[in-house]
Amino acid sequence: MTPLDILCEVFSGRNKIHLEKMMIVVLLLAGLVWQANACLQRIDQTPGVQDASKLISRGENFDDVEQIVEALGLSTDDWSLEEGPKRQIKYDLTRQRLNLFYEGLRVRGFTLQASINSDDEYTGAVSGFIPTITNLDLTAGAGVRRREVKQALAQYVNDNNVRINQGDIDTKDLSHFSFDRQIYVDFSTGKASVVFYAKALVNIPNYIRSPRALFDGNLNLIKGRLSVRNKGTSGCPNALGGNLQFPGLTYGSGPGETCLNAKVRGKTCILRSKRFVIKDVKCKMDRREAEVVKFNCEDGLNDSSNGGNSPNADSFYYAQVFYDVLKTWGKQTSPFDDKTTTLYTHYAKHPNAFWDGVAVTFGNGDNNVFPYSVKEIIGHELGHAITEDSGNMVFDGESVAVDESFADICGKAISAYLDPSYNWKFADNLIRSARDALRYFDDPTKDGRTIANVNEFQTVASDHPALGVGVFDKFFYLVNDAGVPFNSAFEAVVLANRIYWHGETGFYDGACGVLRAANDLGQDVYKYKSSFLQVGIDLSFCCLDGTA
Q1: Which of 113, 347, 373, 387 is positioned for an S-S bond with 311, CB 3.0–4.6 A?
Q2: Which of 301, 247, 303 is nearest to 270 (CA)?
């Protein structure tokens, strides 16, 4: 065991700290520079893991995924692959994500990627990692019933966020509840176990949460996350966007005005499309009282509040723009083609916005911020919907940081798509105070809290992992500054999210996924490597064998 291993154990709290280890730590802290990145999770360093790209000879072709399983040297009686999202890449190939199953159970955190040629055959280009699973008790949790998992999830919510003066959360408060029996592999030990992955939505007055949790076969909590925190006659109707400090678009049908493309029924305009619908909470805390925004087309739309001119109009318009960005630059449109996504506006005097796993909610702001329904925040929250649809990044601090940065990139993409002269401030039309933006891509540390290098993550990991957002934000700025156009870098990040990332993705695995996506698209991977290195992520371990 190296001194650095001891430090990682001490600070991660995984092992009991003995006196001799404490003495070593004291000596190390006196004369050793702390290498925080060594404590960050690395799927490629998981004990027993196999690199799929090393197991299949290049040039082999396969008719189906079962043949890939055999070529990997795995038993088809135990292992199977499920076809996931796919994207056409260079050389007339299609890149597809393959979800890994063992004995019929989804293996969390492990996916493969394969290429399909013009003859609809899988080639030998297969990448990803496969865990070694031995002595696994497949009967664990077999007798557990749905109501018991639901009770465990409700208890998790109660243990982590009590409803003040309103009693406990009960199972009846959990809507959109689902659970799945899966296999979880601990990246630090390589040990596999059968778990329950459960998720739901809590949507009651004064309290909205979207809990996700992993439980072992006895319904003991492994880890969880509460992803929302409260503090307390024409389809071109007239409306004014923006807010008092930052003028926005003028909506209407006249010259120089922007059409909202609202749905029209008789004389009534409705902010609903095939993909998005706006519901106004009218400054209340209970979203169940929200109403679809309808108004007389001739009168136009006037929902000014807290300095925002028309949060309803801006939310509807920029959501449609984000769909266009995703289609044009990201080369994919899921999940917004599959169902209508609800955007709630004017949510009380709430200084935040959030995606809860089902819908987006925009707080009405407070004395420090305008209503949160500004273009980059709208793109940010809809970016979370993409990650949710991909089944990615649920729990750990690193995953939270990567998820938040992906959402930031989605928000900034709206500005870059609409205006080639965009800047690198994030949500610079939201803040009322002297501070001129919510975050900064070019210098994330400018806000005095956010980090910009992966080696600093341990300082924020325990209490505020979202402050790690600056690592990938800064990378994205750097790769653009290195000459990769915004739309190209955006396409690579979206492709990584859809094909390479998974439910346990951290900084290193996420960065490697971006590099592989850039390679799939025929981009200059050296610019990506250099940019990641500048935020402390050395991708020399990230092998492109098995990719296109």
Answers
A1: 373
A2: 301
Contact yes or no for 153/211 (Cβ under 8 A): yes
% of the chain surpassing 90 pLDDT: 73
Residue ranges of the chain assigned to CATH 3.10.450.40: 146-226
20: its two tokens: 């001799």
pLDDT (tens digit per residue) in 107-144 = 999 999 999 999 999 998 899 999 999 999 999 999 99
The pTM of this model reads: 0.84
Structure tokens at 171: 């199972």
Architecture of the domain whose range is 230-375 = Roll (3.10)
Question: Is the separation of the CB atoms in 231 and 367 below 8 Å?
Answer: no
55-94 pLDDT, tens digit per residue, is 987 778 999 999 999 999 999 999 999 999 999 898 889 9
pLDDT in tens, 374-428: 999 999 999 999 999 988 777 778 999 999 999 999 999 999 999 999 999 999 9
Beta strands in 20-143 (DSSP E): 50-51, 79-88, 94-102, 105-116, 122-130
d(CA 236, CA 32): 64
| CA 156 – CA 199 distance, rounded (Å) | 11
- Give pLDDT, residue 165: 52
Pick the CATH number of 146-226 from 3.30.450.20, 3.30.70.60, 3.40.1110.10, 3.10.450.40: 3.10.450.40
Give φ, ψ of 544 to 5 degrees. -95, 5
Q: Give CATH 3.10.170.10 domain extents, the chain.
A: 230-375
Q: Is 317 strand, coil or helix?
A: helix
Rounded CA-CA distance 514/527 in Å is 12
Looking at 11-20, 113-122, 308-317, 449-458, which range is the least confident one?
11-20
Contact (CB, 8 A) for 458 and 390: no
* 547 contacts 125 by C-beta, under 8 angstroms: yes
Q: What angle do CA 340, 406, 504 make, to 5 degrees?
A: 95
Burial 490-523 (b: 16+ CB within 10 A, else e): bbbbbbbbbbbbbbbbbbbbbbbbbbbbbbbbeb
Closest listed residue to residue 417, CA positions, set 325, 320, 480: 325
End-to-end CA, the chain: 38
Euclidean distance between CA atoms 112 and 127, whole angstroms: 6
Amino acid at 116: I
Written as six digits, the tokens of 417 are 């798509």
Q: Report the chain's C-alpha Rg in angstroms.
A: 24
Q: Choose among 487, 480, 484, 498: nearest CA to 332.
A: 498
